[in-house]
């Protein structure tokens, strides 16, 4: 992948709302070239989507409960962990799923509106899968940092003098 | 004695002109909702690993003086850094001095080399401290004006024309504050020829060396024969976003560094210890972060240069530092009038070019060390200002 493409992806990763025109001037390309490049990267599935990081704790009447679940599973012959992983990641509540080294096999992040909702998912859906041996659920109490962004960053104000040599 | 009675103040200090930046600072800081492109320092906070290393040194009780020349480990790290990055070799033992910012290194360098009345060639537009530092050291600044035609790169012939029997030194700063002009190897070789011919010393302020965007940086000291004639000055402020830590260094021939260390030991003792430990961490593990910051500056430079040219404030693409120096001559206004009107009308602070020397008249310095959001808003407001003055048509 060429350097400009990587630069473009890094810019979009940190701010998906940058306009094609702004990106173009930042990486010294024409706007049309940037538009074409983004389209190509979308078609190749290098760009999978554009999401917004929201601090739901700040939004009234919107409570989101997040839990991380450690799952031990029995791999399937011929498919390894992929088959059971697919069974799990297809659930919409599952926001992230990773195969891990160490004391357990799969790590999943799940979101729901209440703790009840999550515990129902674990007992009804997850634990009942044939390959699942055991689960350990950890509820998130507070989010400090997510995807490289610090929530409620105290440092975010400009502390410099307004004019300096 | 009244407040305004200054007969106790030395004459030569009374004669010293206050920096033109001060007045502008006072104006801008009285207003609300100002977007400032007038800041001469990074918009990043110091990388966390550096802050944490400094904490740790304090927790461990490293609160005493260090050696006058600075922590030996830090000098070793600087020596390695200069050798790897800029191919110049300096011994940690006697060719390096850790200072309180590059500014102190500049001050001490001139005090160490200048006899009363000896001349130093200064290329303007330049950083505001150079001329006072030379004057305070008893020297005589001789100004050479870099021209926009040559993208503000000083020409060898201009330097030659300024040389007199009294010339002792040339002060170079590349990449330059305020113009962003950057001298390449060929430019430096041409100057080196003059330096050798006239037996001069060069004070080379290389504080922005790490922020050169399109080319490989060449240190003046790396040019053949120049290491014995160069006082290389740099520091941690700009590339590692450590301005408030006040930590810089000078590297040079042992005889000059010895003389500088003598002044330093009597006047400063040593640079702050906790800052030195932070700097050590910066050199050990901070290079990746510098690269990230540099990429970000480069993108913002490209954005700002295009936006300014589009609105009729013409400027070349500066090679380094984080400043652009667009011409405002098309407006028919002076730099100060333009900057004041822009501040009043659109609440955007820029620095009038004449603050950096007479040859800066007709230009403004815009720093792009600000977030993309701020830059975008500033460009919008400046475009509005230019529109009001009928200097840009919205087609």
Automatic annotation (TrEMBL), chain A:
Domain Transcription regulator AsnC/Lrp ligand binding: 69-142
Domain of life: Bacteria
Name of the protein in its database record: Transcriptional regulator, AsnC family
InterPro entries reported for this sequence: Dimeric_a/b-barrel, HTH-Siroheme_Decarb, Tscrpt_reg_AsnC-like, Tscrpt_reg_AsnC/Lrp_C, WH-like_DNA-bd_sf, WH_DNA-bd_sf
Leader peptide range in chain numbering: none
Pfam families xref list: AsnC_trans_reg
From TrEMBL, chain B:
CC cofactor: pyridoxal 5'-phosphate
Protein name: Aminotransferase
E.C. designation(s): 2.6.1.-
Keywords: Aminotransferase, Pyridoxal phosphate, Transferase
Aminotransferase class I/classII large domain segment(s): 33-381
Keyword Transferase recorded: yes
Enzyme class label: transferase
Family in the record: Belongs to the class-I pyridoxal-phosphate-dependent aminotransferase family.
The organism of origin for this protein: Pelagirhabdus alkalitolerans
GO MF term (any one): transaminase activity
One Pfam match: Aminotran_1_2
Domain of life: Bacteria
Annotated GO biological process: amino acid metabolic process
């Amino acid at each position: 992948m060429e350097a400009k493409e990587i630069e473009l992806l890094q810019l979009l990763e940190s701010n998906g709302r940058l306009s094609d025109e702004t990106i173009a001037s930042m990486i010294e390309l024409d706007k049309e070239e940037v538009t074409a490049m983004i389209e190509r990267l979308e078609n190749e599935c290098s760009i999978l989507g554009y999401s917004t990081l929201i601090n739901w704790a700040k939004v009234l009447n919107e409570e989101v409960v997040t839990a991380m679940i450690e799952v031990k599973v029995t791999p399937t012959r011929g498919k390894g962990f992929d088959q059971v992983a697919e069974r799990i990641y297809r659930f919409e509540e599952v926001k992230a799923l990773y195969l891990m080294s160490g004391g357990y096999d799969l790590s999943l992040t799940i979101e729901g509106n209440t703790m009840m909702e999550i515990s129902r998912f674990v007992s009804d859906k997850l634990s009942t899968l044939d390959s699942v041996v055991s689960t350990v659920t950890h509820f998130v109490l507070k989010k400090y940092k997510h995807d490289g962004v610090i929530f409620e960053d105290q440092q975010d104000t400009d502390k410099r003098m307004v004019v300096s040599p | 004695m009244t407040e305004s009675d200054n007969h106790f103040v030395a004459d030569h200090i009374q004669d010293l002109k206050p920096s033109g930046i001060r007045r502008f600072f006072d104006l801008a800081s009285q207003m609300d909702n100002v977007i400032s492109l007038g800041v001469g320092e990074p918009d990043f906070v110091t990388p966390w690993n550096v802050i944490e290393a400094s904490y740790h040194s304090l927790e461990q009780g490293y609160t005493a003086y260090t050696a006058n020349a600075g922590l030996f480990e830090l000098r070793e790290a600087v020596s390695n850094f200069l050798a790897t990055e800029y191919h110049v070799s300096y011994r940690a033992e006697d060719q390096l001095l850790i200072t309180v910012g590059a500014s102190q290194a500049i001050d001490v360098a001139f005090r160490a080399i200048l006899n009363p009345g000896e001349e130093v060639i200064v290329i303007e537009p330049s950083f505001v401290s150079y001329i006072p530092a030379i004057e305070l050291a008893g020297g005589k600044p001789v100004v050479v004006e870099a021209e926009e035609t040559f993208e503000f790169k000083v020409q060898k012939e201009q330097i030659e024309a300024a040389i007199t029997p009294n010339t002792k030194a040339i002060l170079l700063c590349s990449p330059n504050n305020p113009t962003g002009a950057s001298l390449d190897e060929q430019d430096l070789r041409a100057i080196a020829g003059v330096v050798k011919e006239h037996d001069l010393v060069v004070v080379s302020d290389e504080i922005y060396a790490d922020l050169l965007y399109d080319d490989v940086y060449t240190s003046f000291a790396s040019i053949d024969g120049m290491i014995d004639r160069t006082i290389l000055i740099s520091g941690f402020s700009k590339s590692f976003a450590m301005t408030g830590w006040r930590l810089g260094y000078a590297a040079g021939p042992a005889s000059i560094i010895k003389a500088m260390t003598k002044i330093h030991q009597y006047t400063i003792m040593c640079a702050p210890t906790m800052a030195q430990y932070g700097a050590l961490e910066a050199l050990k593990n901070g290079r990746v972060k510098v690269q990230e910051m540099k990429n970000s500056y480069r993108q913002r430079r490209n954005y700002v240069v295009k936006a300014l040219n589009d609105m009729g404030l013409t400027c070349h693409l500066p090679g380094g530092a984080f400043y652009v120096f667009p011409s405002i001559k098309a407006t028919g206004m002076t730099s100060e009038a333009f900057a004041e009107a822009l501040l009043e009308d659109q609440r955007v602070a820029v620095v009038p070019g004449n603050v950096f020397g007479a040859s800066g008249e007709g230009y403004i310095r815009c720093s792009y060390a600000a977030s993309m959001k701020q830059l975008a808003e500033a460009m919008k407001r400046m475009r509005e200002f230019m529109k009001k003055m009928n200097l840009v048509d919205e087609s």
